[in-house]
Amino acid sequence: MVIAYILSVVLSIVVGSLGLALALWIMDDKAKLSDLSEDFRTCAVYNVIMQLVGSAVFGVAFGTESVILALIGITVYFVLAFKLLMDWFDLGFLSVLLLFFVALFVNYLALTTAYTFIEGLIG
Fold it and tell me: Which of 4, 66, 103, 118 is the most core-located residue (most Cβ within 10 A)?
């Protein structure tokens, strides 16, 4: 079960980074193919950071069973995610808001799909 989770996280980061990089590349009308690979690397770093922060928030929230700590952690997670997207990709508020939800959706789909697939293989 732990192996399936670790593999699904890695696949989620890769697929989520590719999805976010493609969205950024499509939004930029002056982008070249080399920009896609640079955006992919940056998105991979972003997704690793957010995965670690999300795991820490999840661990603290359920480890302490504190609603207040969970709400604080979730707030920090969203602020960090939003701030990183704004600073790293030099985007406006609405563009970052759209990309934030796209990244969340793509990561959720990738994690769920990968976990189900790997669990079926190991299972």
Answer: 103
